[in-house]
Amino acid sequence: MDGFVRQIHAPFALVAETLAVREALSWLKQKQGARTEPKMGTDLHVEISSDNASVVECVSGRIESPWAAWSIINDCKSLLAQLRGVKIRYEHRDTNQAVDWIAKAHGTDSLPPNWLSKPPILYG
């Protein structure tokens, strides 16, 4: 398991969510490029989930991109096309408590440094 957290500043929630997806896709592209296996074995098997259905629909090409996020969404589409084995899907926030906890803890500067190796035990 691997991951990262980063604070994103944006004027609208849609732009922030789209920037977060672009960050994840860029990170995956970097990770894929750093793999040492032969070219045939470089497919990733990753699902990026977002709790913003509009972002998922736009990046997937099912609806038109709003002007405020148009260029970022196009970047996401381009990155996604380059990453074989990577999918994006909508997932309601209530079904992914760990991600919600990480985002909230990071936002309040209370995310432990070992959050990746020792994630919280969540009861729902």
Shape type: globular
Strand percentage lies at: 5-15%
Largest sheet geometry:
2 strands, parallel
What structural class should be given to the helix and strand makeup? mainly alpha
Q: Could you tell me how far the N terminus lies from the C terminus, measured between alpha carbons in angstroms?
A: 22 Å
Q: Can you give the mean pLDDT?
A: 85
- Which strands sit side by side, in order, in the main sheet? 1-2
Low-confidence stretches: none
What share of residues is helical? Answer: 40-55%
Q: Number of helix segments?
A: 4
H/E series, N to C?
A: HEHHEH
**CA radius of gyration:** 15 Å
Number of extended strands = 2
Brief description of this entry?
The protein is mainly alpha-helical and 124 residues long.
Keywords:
mainly alpha; 124 residues
Any overview of this molecule?
- The chain has 124 residues and is mainly alpha-helical.
- Helices cover 43% and strands 8% of the residues.
- The protein has 4 helices and 2 strands; from the N terminus they run H-E-H-H-E-H.
- It has helices at 13-34, 53-59, 70-82, 97-107, and strands spanning 46-50, 86-90.
- It has a two-stranded parallel sheet with strand order 1-2.
- It starts with 12 loop residues before the first helix and ends in a 17-residue tail after the last helix.
- The relative contact order is 0.18.
- The mean pLDDT is 85.
